[in-house]
Design goal:
heterodimer, A: 589 residues, Methane Monooxygenase Hydroxylase, Chain G, domain 1, 4-stranded antiparallel sheet, 22 strands, 21% strand, globular, B: 232 residues, alpha+beta, 2 domains, 5-stranded mixed sheet, two-stranded antiparallel sheet, 8 helices
């Protein structure tokens, strides 16, 4: 281990090389700024690669469409917790953003007239809630792969500088300003101090906090952990999306595109049960609605299989060629992991943790905000966040399918535009001298010194995931969440006591897992504390003991300070800039 | 079951050696993939070095050489493997630690073929139009996950990883020469017209046999060569 830190100066460092980070990097490099992208994996291994169904934009290539209708659907989908100014901005940018992706080379599927193919997805309508919209632009069922690779390719063209397989440990701070990050090269554990005028977090989700999830092993909430340790708040962490159709017992994602193309969910009686829960749009209701319906079917004894613990996703009535052409990846997953060809046999599915609606609070410029004495939205100088790690909030209490790929690209570009404008307007901005280096190094060195113990990082992580799944799943109540919170405290103590089995400096995965687990634990505390306090059901937060939405008390965002272990709240934006506001209504599909 | 894993730590080993593990198969799911076994071994020995992430065959992190064949551990059913299971890093690349190899040359070759669309500039109000038939040309080319199973099975790449672009890079090259939106086809073919970069391929077809996504780099290279010879 080298005690000496290598030191580098940049205009901007971007932590994370998924779709959000890469879109931002492309613009900033093209504008001639000195940019570095830090990624703990080679960029095309980032989790954007796993997104399947598509990206929403009102292109109107298949059905008449307007971005205002998309805005309405997103606000309704969010159960009115999404900020209406942010949703308005995202939806109005969407068409241009998708065409721009097409120009970057994304191999979208095509219609006979040569335009981008768009499919039906859940929760999307024409004319403010009337007939089903076809708004989700798709590259077969590999849209995330197509977008991530195309953005990486364009960054190769523009010459972006990458620190591949480097892990970000913590944010450098000068007073309350953020001025870069300390990162570690995984190959040799060399620490690097990346000083920067602007730091952009694009670290993705944290689905590893739940046992069954669709997320990659790398999704450990690193950006959230860094922000929490820097003393800033996390927002709306009680809202986790359980995707209705994960492969039962395993968790791999089966895209909503399957239902968009005509797939039907059936229970053990063969009944297309979604008709009872969402009479109008049936299988294409919002994800929270479908996930709850599946859970109820199984709880009430209508599950399938020997243990009656899943339902079936049936596409056997669809044309085999259509499935091969539009859903090749899904067919592949089903055949690989279940040995079932969905053209012949239905796929066993059950809800699985998929997406974090909460995250690092940001404003419309993608600047990180945190409450201070004067404001609930004080800007953190020098720090930005985008994509799943951020909460701007465009997804509110429940995200619509096809809106996460949109979110990452819209706010990836927006953050880059904000930073670009700032760098050009303020050419004399200097990099500040960090004053928290000692604290950062002390946390890191603790793991170097930790001697081997009987307990292990892998065991603590498994226990954490089980606690969260039992306490904060699709349905929650006071008892389940209080039990989870009580169990998190001893887990935190174990993490303080545990030692490592690997003390080498070459690709030390044991130490990496320990650093990631520290972040996951913060995410877990934020989730349970925020969820316990919210005494209502809204979007993905379904409380058995408080089954109704309560706008008079709870139409507000939760803020969690890990340093103080305390909650505060802030207003939901109900005043979009151009469109008339959408008043909260009962949500029916 | 008996599992042999190649171990190497640069600080203490002169060269890689095989370590034998006896694993109680009942600890694993009956339909487990190879990755589940490897993660089980990592719990027994957390120093074991291996890359993995998505666990569903799309991120391309966990390419390994198992019983002599390159594959992704997360999509290979354990049952499909004969015992003893011999797990080695991808051949032909420098080993960093255990099953983790240095893919720098592989990535360099990918970058060398300019794997990015160069199209007619268009204002953001418009799409480049592409018929379903033109788009179909890209099927089997764009789905590559850069796992390196192919290039690591190619004798031409083993011998000349610095000169021969290798199957993954050439598959990407072919994809951009046939994308109807790209306007640099002639220039691309000209740059690929090299006895080493492209024509070092001898069509052994190990690449196609080892691709975990079922793609056919060998055929793509053949087509590329034909077009270079014909000049379009």
């Amino acid at each position: 281990m080298s005690e000496s830190l290598l030191e580098y100066d940049f205009d901007v460092i971007i932590i994370g090389a998924g779709g959000a980070g890469l879109r931002a990097a492309l613009l900033l490099t093209e504008q001639g700024h000195k940019v570095a992208v830090v990624s703990k994996v080679f960029p095309t291994r980032s989790h954007t690669v796993a997104a399947q169904g598509g990206i929403n934009a009102a292109l109107a290539n298949v059905t008449p469409d307007k971005w205002e209708w998309h805005m309405y659907d997103t606000i309704k989908g969010s159960d009115y917790l999404g900020d209406q100014d942010a949703i308005e901005f995202m939806c109005s940018e969407a068409a241009e953003i998708v065409r721009e992706l097409e120009h970057f080379g994304v191999p979208f599927s095509r219609l006979n007239n040569g335009k981008i193919y768009q499919r039906a997805f859940g929760g999307q309508s024409q004319n403010y809630g009337e007939s089903q919209a076809h708004r989700t632009c798709a590259a077969a069922d590999r849209t995330g792969h197509a977008i991530l690779h195309s953005l990486y390719q364009q960054n190769l063209r523009s010459g972006t500088h990458f620190f591949d397989e480097h892990y970000a440990i913590d944010l450098l701070k000068s007073g309350e300003q953020v001025c870069g990050a300390v990162v570690m090269n995984l190959h040799d554990s060399q620490l690097k101090r990346l000083n920067a005028k602007h730091t952009l977090l694009a670290t993705g989700g944290a689905g590893q906090v739940f046992r069954t999830n669709t997320n990659a092993a790398i999704n450990s909430g690193d950006g959230l952990g860094m922000v929490a340790r820097a003393g800033f708040t996390l927002q709306d962490m009680e809202f986790w999306q359980f995707h209705p159709t994960g492969v039962a017992g395993k968790g791999m994602l089966i895209s909503e595109a399957v239902r968009g193309e005509g797939g039907i969910l059936r229970n053990s009686n063969g009944e297309a049960f979604m008709e009872r829960y969402a009479p109008r749009v049936k299988d294409l209701a919002s994800r929270d609605v479908v996930a709850r319906a599946i859970s109820i079917e199984v709880t009430e004894g209508r599950g399938c299989g020997p243990n009656k613990d899943y339902v079936l996703l049936d596409i056997s009535h669809l044309d085999g060629d259509l499935v091969r052409q539009r859903l090749p990846g899904i067919r592949d997953i089903s055949m690989t992991f279940l040995g079932k060809d969905p053209i012949e046999e239905p796929i066993p599915v059950f809800p699985t943790c998929h997406y974090m609606m909460g995250g690092i609070p940001t404003n419309l410029q993608a600047q990180v905000v945190t409450p201070d004495h004067n404001s609930e939205q004080a800007v953190v100088d020098g720090l930005y966040a985008i994509g799943e790690c951020a909460c701007v909030s465009v997804h509110g209490a429940n995200r619509l399918g096809g809106n996460s790929l949109l979110d990452i690209v819209v706010f990836g570009r927006k953050a880059a535009q904000s930073i670009d404008a700032e760098l050009k307007a303020n050419t004399r901005r200097k990099i500040s001298e960090a004053d928290n280096l000692e604290v950062i190094l002390a946390r890191f060195h603790r793991w170097q010194l930790a001697q081997t113990t009987d307990d292990s990082i892998a065991r603590i992580k498994k226990d954490l995931q089980t606690v969260m799944e039992q306490g904060c799943g699709v349905f929650r109540d006071l008892d389940s969440m209080q039990t989870a919170l009580d169990k998190l405290l001893p887990i935190e103590e174990r993490l303080m006591e545990v030692g490592l089995n690997d003390h080498s400096d070459v690709f030390n995965l044991d130490r990496l897992a320990a650093l990631e687990l520290e972040n996951l634990l913060i995410v877990a505390f934020a989730t349970v504390q925020s969820a316990l306090a919210r005494q209502e059901s809204r979007g993905a937060h379904s409380r058995v003991d408080f089954p109704e939405r309560d706008d008079s008390d709870w139409l507000k965002h939760t803020l969690y300070s890990h340093r103080l272990r305390r909650l505060s709240y802030k207003k939901v934006n109900l005043t979009p800039q151009h469109h008339a506001p959408f008043e909260p209504k009962k949500r029916v599909y | 079951m008996e599992v042999l894993i190649s171990r190497y730590h640069p600080d203490k080993d002169d060269e890689p050696y095989m370590q034998t593990f006896e694993v109680d198969g009942s600890q694993l799911h009956s339909d487990a993939m190879l990755l589940e076994l490897i993660l089980h071994l990592r719990e027994i020995d957390p120093t074991l070095g291996v890359r993995y992430s998505c666990q569903e065959g799309v991120c391309g992190s966990d390419a390994l050489n198992v019983n002599g064949k390159n594959l992704l551990s997360c999509t290979t059913p354990l049952k499909s493997l004969k015992e003893p299971i011999e797990i080695r890093p991808l051949p032909g690349f420098p080993i960093i630690k255990d099953l983790i190899v240095d893919l720098e040359l592989f990535y360099q070759q990918y970058k060398s073929v300019e794997p990015f669309l160069q199209s007619e500039p268009l204002d953001p109000q418009q799409e480049h139009l592409q018929t379903p038939k033109q788009r179909e040309q890209l099927d089997g080319k764009y789905e590559c996950i850069l796992c390196a199973c192919c290039s690591a099975s190619c004798p031409s790449f083993w011998w000349n990883p610095d000169l021969f672009a290798g199957p993954a890079a050439l598959l990407a090259a072919q994809r951009f020469t046939i994308d109807s939106r790209d306007i640099t086809t002639i220039d691309r073919l000209h740059k690929l017209d090299s006895p080493t970069k492209t024509f070092r391929c001898r069509h052994i077809q190990n690449c196609t046999a080892s691709c975990p996504k079922g793609l056919n780099p060998s055929q793509a290279i053949q087509s590329l060569k034909n077009r270079i010879v014909k000049g379009h």
